[in-house]
Amino acid sequence: MIEVIRKKNKKKVAEEAAKIVLQEIKKKQNLVLGLATGRTMIPFYNALVKLKKNEKISFTNVRTFNLDEYVGLGEKDKKSFRHFMEEYFFSKVDLKKENINFLDGKTKNFKKECLRYENKIKKSGGIDLQILGIGRNRHIAFNEPGSSIKSRTRKVRLPEETRKVNFGSLKNAPKFALTVGISTILNSRKILLLAFGKEKKKAVQNSLQGKISSKMPASFLRLHKNVIFVVDETVMNN
To answer: Catalytic annotation on 144?
Structure first.
């Protein structure tokens, strides 16, 4: 079942999502938080940092697991998701470095690294709250159309569309990434998806109303018992 919360614009979407995250931390100080990256997440992290300061909530005991990382990029590479997180979130809150978990894009053994990550999530007790965005082609994390509901953390090939959206062009855009699978995402206790802008309208509406299928990976979220979509009016308008 998916609860849909509609807000006026992306600023309100970001603020509402931030409120939900802080509510969960208030209930459980050692929350295990799954994090996402991408342009959708920038206003969200800005709102979360601001609200955290206003409400004086600590992230000291929170543990985080990010969804994905590009193959071949290290944490100091400005195009890496690890660098993105440092810029927009990690450097601005009181998270302990040892509580931040990330896939290693520079690994030489992809299967071993992905298994390590899965095991680390399990040892943490599982993800309490998973934050998601959604791609125009209905992907969640880098689970592109065709991804199995049984998929776990793995190396994936990125389609040209996703690479163009994320990098502006195919030049120097990584061809592969490591990503948390759909099955791993669905194991989260609660899922929070953010979407705004008319370019996400079809993706959201198809995921909410279309056939549940690997052709639309986000549609699998309807099989989870505790999912919230926070969207703006452009996404939900007919």
So the answer is: yes
